[in-house]
Automatic annotation (TrEMBL):
Full protein name: Nitroreductase family protein
PANTHER family: NAD(P)H NITROREDUCTASE RV3131-RELATED, NADPH NITROREDUCTASE
Organism: Streptomyces incanus
Signal peptide: none
Occurrences of domain Nitroreductase (ranges): 28-223
InterPro entries recorded: Nitroreductase (IPR029479), Nitroreductase-like (IPR000415), Nitroreductase/BluB (IPR050627)
Amino acid sequence: MNTQATLSETPADDATEPALFATMSTMRAMRRLQPDPVPDELLDRLIQAAVWGPSGGNMQRYEYVVVTDPEVMAELAPLWKRCVDAYLATTGKYAPAGMDEAAYGRMVAAIEYQRDHFAETPALIIPCYRFPEPRMEEEGVRKYAEALGAEATARMGRIQERFSALAEGSCVYPGVQNLLLAARALGLAANITIWHLMLEEEWKAALGIPEDMNTFAAIPVGWPRGNFGPVSRRPVAEVVHRNRW
């Protein structure tokens, strides 16, 4: 059985379920957008939804670049094309294991459509975050090492870069998911990518983003060409491990 084609176990139109479940179960990545502008008021609602998301330590150091100027979008289009072409030539060259080739072909066609029409994108949102420098005192470091133990402290030293990246991402992506949910609830098409990171310096230069500010996604937003529909995901029984792996 094609597990990735298995639909959500909860029908999207089940009147007994909270509306949020129907929203989540029909939140496909929508890459074909109409060129019509999205009102600033709606874009502000998306950012408000993102701001409501949890942020590690309640630091709230996120910033959002919202691009709606067609001239700026036209400047970004060649960068987007280079990133998409690099992806399709490597990771995106083959369908994921278990995914039907025809379905993957349709997804690639949508990616190529978005690439070729990127200059017409009504809005693009770039979530950014600047993680503060940690405040470390000698006494705190000593207690930290005591709490973890020598072996775990040494291991943390080896994975510190990964730990820091995950800590920063965990402050951003919950808000991004809120943004995507809000877009779906408002009838807007959106999809999240991180392909821009392949040329992050060029993107930041084009948008005037400070060098010490990290970017975490590029989210095109607009009114959809086509209809929302149920997502295809693996069933819960295949992915859950209860109590232990």
